[in-house]
Amino acid sequence: MEANQRIARLSAHLHPSNPQMEREHAILRRDGCRAKGGAPGFKVAILGAAGGIGQPLAMLMKMNPLVSVLHLYDVVNSPGVTADISHMDTGAVAEVLGLDPREVDVPVVGGHAGVTILPLLSQAKAGTGSATLSMVTELPFFASKVKLGRGGAEEVYQLGPLNEYERVGLEKAKKELEASIQKGVSFIRK
């Protein structure tokens, strides 16, 4: 289904069909844009969340401090997008440590699925901390903290000290990532 058709299908129920609904929709638009329950931010709905633009947009909106409620809609299921953003930027670690969630930084490195996702909980701390420039692993593809600038990634931050659990997790992640990278490279070369 073409993107414009998906958007039209998703938004069809938003178009009021009579003047009574027009008045109700105006009230909803005015009063319903702020999140309820004391949440300070806005409610945002992403139509076409499973599409090429919807996925990164959902991730950006999830990290936006002005957005407190995020809804994902698409004509196809979007469980992958939902799973991706469900673990992002939550207050779980801050709650356990008794800190303000806006001040806690937990690096997550590795890949994007299963054992390749490695949260570095031993490095959970208030503030952003400091890091130095270095290669993280010998793998050509490995998600890590970076400093972004006008030209893209300016610095790749080292992993820092790891506890035993994280060292074991890193080895598992590297093994899985290496196999996935080889599979991807082989596929492209065919």
From TrEMBL:
PANTHER family: MALATE AND LACTATE DEHYDROGENASE, MALATE DEHYDROGENASE 1, PEROXISOMAL. Belongs to the LDH/MDH superfamily. Its EC number is 1.1.1.37. It comes from the Eukaryota. GO terms for biological process: tricarboxylic acid cycle. One of its GO terms (molecular function) is L-malate dehydrogenase (NAD+) activity. Residues 43-95 form the Lactate/malate dehydrogenase N-terminal domain. Residues 138-187 form the Lactate/malate dehydrogenase C-terminal domain. InterPro entries: Lactate/malate_DH_C (IPR022383), Lactate/malate_DH_N (IPR001236), Lactate_DH/Glyco_Ohase_4_C (IPR015955), NAD(P)-bd_dom_sf (IPR036291). Keywords: NAD, Oxidoreductase, Tricarboxylic acid cycle. GO terms for cellular component: chloroplast. Coiled coil: none annotated. This is malate dehydrogenase. Transmembrane segments: none annotated. Pfam families: Ldh_1_C, Ldh_1_N.
